[in-house]
Write a structure and sequence with these properties.
alpha+beta, Immunoglobulin-like, globular
Amino acid sequence: MNKSLLIAVLCFFSICAWEAQATNSTTLPSSIYNKVHNMPEGYEVIELHGDLATNVGPNAIVAGANDDAVYIGFNQDFGLVNISIYNSMGGLVYSTVVNTSVQQVVIIPITFATSGTYTVELSNAFGYAEGDFEHLNNN
């Protein structure tokens, strides 16, 4: 085996090992996190906190936001989940209930919202999770 091929193989396995170890962390660069967790490119990770996001297993819920939408992916069945989005003043700007038994991905358009910090909140009988994101309205 030539030296460059050996280096390429070692680098590949090092990256794979790093990604495997890092899948439990939302501090990954968005491009790698998105590939590992099937989130579409272009979304910045929303770090979720709360028992709904952590007690059921790592990465059971992934969330991200861009200037147009909030993406939420449920990697396991949580039954009915309340999804709410609040502005920085605590005002409710969006609310829905999703049956994760049949809908594993939720994409919420947020182009109507003004620029600022928002909180996405998920809750059901199993618990609660929330995370903040920045929204820039380009309209």
